[in-house]
Amino acid sequence: MNVCTKCGTQLEDGVQFCQNCGQKRESLVVKKTMSSGTKFGITLLALLAVVIVGLYLYGSSYYKQAAQVDRMITIVQERDREKLAEIVTADDPSVIVTRESLMPLFSYIKENPSYVDELKEHLRIGEKQRDGIEKADFSLTKDGKYFFIFDRYKLKAKTYYTTVLTNEKGTSLKMNGKEIDKTDDKKFEKQYGPFLPGTQVFQAEYKNDYVKLLREEKVVLMKQGQNNVTIDLTLQGQYITVQTNAPGATLYVNQKPVTALAGEEIMWGPVATDGSTTIYLERNGENGRETTKVETVTALSSYNLPFQKKSTEKTVVYNVTPPPTTQYVYNGFIFPDSDIRKLTSADLTYLSKEQLKIARNEIYARHGHMFQTKDMKSYFSKQSWYRENPYFTGKLTDIETYNVELIKSRE
Q1: Beta pairing class for 172-175 and 198-207
Q2: Which of 246, 269, 338, 347 could bond 239 through an S-S bridge, CB–CB 3.0 to 4.6 Å?
Q3: CA atoms of 246 and 261, how far apart (whole Å)
Q4: pLDDT tens-digit readout, 345-382
Q5: Is 120 left (phi over 0), alpha (psi -120 to 50) or beta?
Q6: CA torsion, ordered 185, 190, 192, 197, to nearest 10 deg
Q7: What topology is assigned to 323-411 in CATH?
């Protein structure tokens, strides 16, 4: 600077102090002018910082747990299986969640629309507790991050297994209309799964040339205390007892040979009782082939098909239950049809008290009643058709209740 800042005297070049007042000479500060490129860079960085902060604040709101729960509930309400499959995982790693595997859940929601509100409440409680609700069929679980910053949540589904029981060899087992197995034993029991929560429809279908048996059970795999549910698909087929007066006979059903009689009596089935089935016996007699009369199978449990004899003896046409012999049990049953036919006093006439007791209890045994008395437990455990069912409540049909009371009155 060439002028004294105190007195205004013109300063000579090279001097450090004013010649007039002695004031120290100040250094000249040269201000640098900022380039346009530098200004643009600073502005860009400032804008970028604002954008980053804005995106973070938006992400914090959009990806917070409560917001993700709301979007999950919306997907469930809209029944969007494709989107739901993307946000559902199973507690069993072997389960692959697909659109098809979620169909039972939507079947349940269709019949129970209030469940969506229940689910929302469960998940909100889990959001407050920050740990989900493991006892529910669905709970929240963390599954990675969004943009390496925000927690990603999914619905973790509880999986179920089913144990299916049935009683005819060669029965087709179906789930939701699709065959899943074929039984290889009359006393069949097998576990299937795992399944996602929802409503499943199980069917047992048995066919032969003479009968078609079908049983269907709708099973709700939701809100169950245990993850294994037993499904009783026991088929109630009609078995008939055929009696005759000569050994060596062959039973014909609808004009086709089906089995040979070891003695003079056989129990056979299952068979239709709608009038579509006819039976008769045939054997080699003294004069060649002999046949009995033809009978149409109805609700009767026993049929007497005697061969005609040359003597003057009258042929007894069976329409009532004959006096039982010591072989009063037919393939494990005293009355094979006591679940579908009302018994009569005549049916009970020749039974001992022991036989009456067994006849009454076999009505319960069909349902898998678990006996406590030693004698009944021992007796039914030896029957091939008996299987314990811990889920049997003791409820009987009207016909079964009638028969139990009738037998009790004679004991």
Answers
A1: antiparallel
A2: 269
A3: 10
A4: 888 887 888 889 999 999 999 999 988 888 888 888 88
A5: alpha
A6: 120
A7: Methane Monooxygenase Hydroxylase; Chain G, domain 1 (1.20.58)
